[in-house]
Each structure stands twice: as structure tokens, then as C-alpha cells.
Design a protein that fits this description.
Blueprint: E1 2-4, E2 12-16, H1 21-32, E3 37-41, H2 47-60, E4 68-71, E5 75-78, H3 82-88
Parallel strand pairs: 2-3
Antiparallel strand pairs: 1-3, 2-4, 4-5
Length: 91
């Protein structure tokens, strides 16, 4: 997990793929909004680490599509849904 510093009003975790354009847009949106968040490129993980993270993503998003954003361990947003993301992080 990598951390991008910013406003920590919410716990935000972005599960992404390093080659995904929508994932890059989501990461940039969160950065531009000044939101503190953690992210991981699932495709760059290896072995057990990747398996553990894949199971975590599947808990929130059984289709295992990306990006998957988990907010406050209670809400998941799947895909680049700008307005929904802005609302969820209070921006």
C-alpha cells in the first residue's frame, strides 16, 4: 500500500491496476481533491500478497473490476464515478 497525503476526514483505499486508465483518473481525482488515501496496484503484487488483496477486493466488489474504492470500511464505489466519489469524500 502506498499513501498519498491529504485531508484524512475519511479512510479511503483505492484498489487499482497499473495499466488501467480509469484507475489513473480516479487516483488523480482523489489527489486533485486533496484527499488523503492509500492505494495499491493489484497487478504488481506477487504470490500470497496478491491473493490476499484480491480476496479483499472481492469482498467489496465480487466482479473484481477496477478501480474499486473503499471509503471508511463501509462503502464501495466501483469504477470511475466522479460525482459519487466527490460526494463520498465530502468534496
Amino acid at each position: 500500500m502506498q499513501y498519498v497525503p491529504g485531508d484524512d476526514n475519511h479512510k479511503v483505499v483505492l484498489y487499482a491496476l497499473s495499466t488501467c486508465g480509469w484507475c489513473a483518473r480516479t487516483k488523480q481525482l482523489l489527489t486533485d481533491l486533496g484527499v488523503g488515501f492509500s492505494y495499491v496496484y493489484v497487478d504488481l503484487l506477487r504470490g500470497d500478497d496478491q491473493g490476499i488483496v484480491v480476496r479483499e477486493v472481492e469482498r467489496w466488489n465480487p466482479r473484481l473490476s477496477f478501480p474499486t474504492i473503499v471509503i471508511d470500511d463501509s462503502k464501495a464505489i466501483v469504477g470511475f464515478r466522479e460525482e459519487e466519489i466527490r460526494k463520498a469524500v465530502g468534496a
